[in-house]
Amino acid sequence: MEVLKMAITIQVSNLQQGYGKTIVLKNINLTVHNGEILGLIGPSGAGKTTLVSTIMGMLTPQKGTVTVMGQRMPNRKLLAKIGYMAQTDALYSTLTARENLNFFGSMQGIASDKLKTQIPYAANIVNLVPDLDKYVKDYSGGMKRRLSLAIALVSDPELLILDEPTVGIDPELRQQIWAELHNIADEGKTILLTTHVMEDAEQSDQLMMIRNGAAIAQGTPDQLVKDYQVKTVEEVFLKAGRMQDENNRND
Ligand SMILES: Nc1ncnc2c1ncn2[C@@H]1O[C@H](COP(=O)(O)OP(=O)(O)OP(=O)(O)O)[C@@H](O)[C@H]1O
Ligand SMILES: [Mg+2]
């Protein structure tokens, strides 16, 4: 098990990323091992989605490199091994939830007999079993988020990349989802998620805080709380932000 955990799933080295001439992320370095849950936090517009899109291979790095499971990204072949939940739901509203799960599952290369067990499994994690045969156009916003999460889970991927998976999810269900994310990580799978919710950050094995294009703090929640001599992850984040502002003023 320990050997499994040591393997590297995601390696980001000296990444600079942005859009056109705009630079959003400067010199990001990140290593995520098998079986680890990495939480990415930072203010709105900090570049969380930009970073996860780059790791997914939807954007090519401006500078630096991203490797996933030893392969340089972008790499289409790896997409079958990644379960991705985008920040904006991309669902077929004229299909039912079950049909969406079937469609995206087969796109991921899952055989139809495996899908027959995976669809109820994934739907159950997000409490959508009773609504599987409803049309997505009749879903609430939170139900759509939950369906997007189920789609990311349906292929039983080696790597889960979840962009704000807990938005629109009530506290009880959030706990249930976290319990399953820990189970998945215990199987040696890797999870990268972004969040604004401190409870999510506290559940992560490793945290990376990005602000003004830079990683301002990285480590386990416990270690960060200790290092910053504060009581909560939220206070770490606030203190690291103030320290970054101080440094920028002194530059
Ligand atoms: N397609 C794009 N073209 C140009 N600029 C973009 C594009 N997508 C994002 N940006 C810019 O890049 C910066 C980072 O955006 P990003 O979506 O990565 O932030 P975020 O941390 O995910 O924010 P949020 O918490 O609001 O989701 C922002 O300044 C945004 O305006
Ligand atoms: Mg985002």
What would the CATH topology be?
Rossmann fold
Give the CATH level 1 class: Alpha Beta
Report the β-strand fraction as a percent range. Answer: 25-35%
Mean pLDDT: 94
Which homologous superfamily in CATH is the superfamily?
P-loop containing nucleotide triphosphate hydrolases
Instruction: List the bound ligands.
Output: adenosine-5'-triphosphate, magnesium ion
Helix vs. strand class? alpha/beta
Termini gap: 46 Å
Poorly predicted residue ranges: none
Integer count of domains: 1
What general outline do the C-alpha atoms trace?
globular
- How many distinct helices? 9
The major pleated sheet works out as: 6 strands, mixed
What strand line-up does the widest sheet have?
6-7-8-3-9-10
Q: What is the N-to-C succession of helices and strands?
A: HEEEHEEEHHHEHEHEEHH
The total beta strand count reads 10
CATH architecture name? 3-Layer(aba) Sandwich
Q: Rg to the nearest angstrom?
A: 18 Å
Q: Into which percent range does the helicity of residues fall?
A: 25-40%
Feature tags:
single chain; Rossmann fold; 6-stranded mixed beta sheet; 4-stranded antiparallel beta sheet; 10 strands; binds adenosine-5'-triphosphate; nucleotide-binding; ABC_transporter-like_ATP-bd
List the helices and strands and how they pair.
Layout: H1 2-6, E1 8-19, E2 22-33, E3 37-41, H2 48-56, E4 63-68, E5 71-72, E6 82-85, H3 97-107, H4 112-125, H5 141-154, E7 159-163, H6 171-186, E8 190-195, H7 198-203, E9 206-211, E10 214-219, H8 221-227, H9 233-250
Parallel strand pairs: 3-8, 3-9, 6-7, 7-8
Antiparallel strand pairs: 1-2, 1-4, 4-5, 9-10
The site of magnesium ion has 4 residues, from helix 2.
InterPro entries: AAA+_ATPase (IPR003593), ABC_transporter-like_ATP-bd (IPR003439), ABC_transporter-like_CS (IPR017871), P-loop_NTPase (IPR027417)
Pfam families: ABC_tran
Domain ABC transporter: 10-237
